[in-house]
Amino acid sequence: MVEGFSIRYASKTDKLRVTSFLELVDEDFYPPLSQRGGGIPERIERCLDTDEANFLVAEPNANRGNSLLEEFMGMIGYTRNWKGHGTAYINFLATHPNHRNSGISKELCLRLEDELAGSGIKRIYLCTWSGNPAAMRFYESLGYCSYAIVLNDRGNSIDTIYYKKNIS
């Protein structure tokens, strides 16, 4: 694992930090998370207030003061049993702008895959948009294969690309 951070499950006490992180990276998504159905509050509720979903968060190893105010370095959200038993959906992945290209997203994905496989999940789904070639290359480098494209799904000439990966 890349040094300098650890990965853990988010808890309800992390709600403020999760909210701050989502707001920080909101405009990195198309459309922004705040403009999607339910916005950021509903996304957080769907992940922190159910047994089938959560976030894994990457945070600094060093105690640099009040941990309640420390920003996350990265975060991945998921929902188990998305398309029936044995499946999961990655609904969010981002790295803090100050920590990009340091391997955090890769470590979050690999850790989530291990955790999900250990709980009986056999296949993971996710999607991104055609204007995000870095994400497409990233997921493909981890073994995700595109299986569907919805043309103009996010606006004129902006397609949604669906990926899946068998993990066990």
Automatic annotation (TrEMBL):
<dbReference type="GO" id="GO:0016747">
    <property type="term" value="F:acyltransferase activity, transferring groups other than amino-acyl groups"/>
</dbReference>
<keyword id="KW-0808">Transferase</keyword>
<dbReference type="InterPro" id="IPR016181">
    <property type="entry name" value="Acyl_CoA_acyltransferase"/>
</dbReference>
<keyword id="KW-0689">Ribosomal protein</keyword>
<dbReference type="Pfam" id="PF00583">
    <property type="entry name" value="Acetyltransf_1"/>
</dbReference>
<keyword id="KW-0012">Acyltransferase</keyword>
<dbReference type="GO" id="GO:0005840">
    <property type="term" value="C:ribosome"/>
</dbReference>
<protein>
    <submittedName>
        <fullName>Ribosomal protein S18 acetylase RimI</fullName>
    </submittedName>
</protein>
<dbReference type="InterPro" id="IPR050680">
    <property type="entry name" value="YpeA/RimI_acetyltransf"/>
</dbReference>
<keyword id="KW-0687">Ribonucleoprotein</keyword>
<feature type="domain" description="N-acetyltransferase">
    <location>
        <begin position="5"/>
        <end position="168"/>
    </location>
</feature>
<dbReference type="InterPro" id="IPR000182">
    <property type="entry name" value="GNAT_dom"/>
</dbReference>
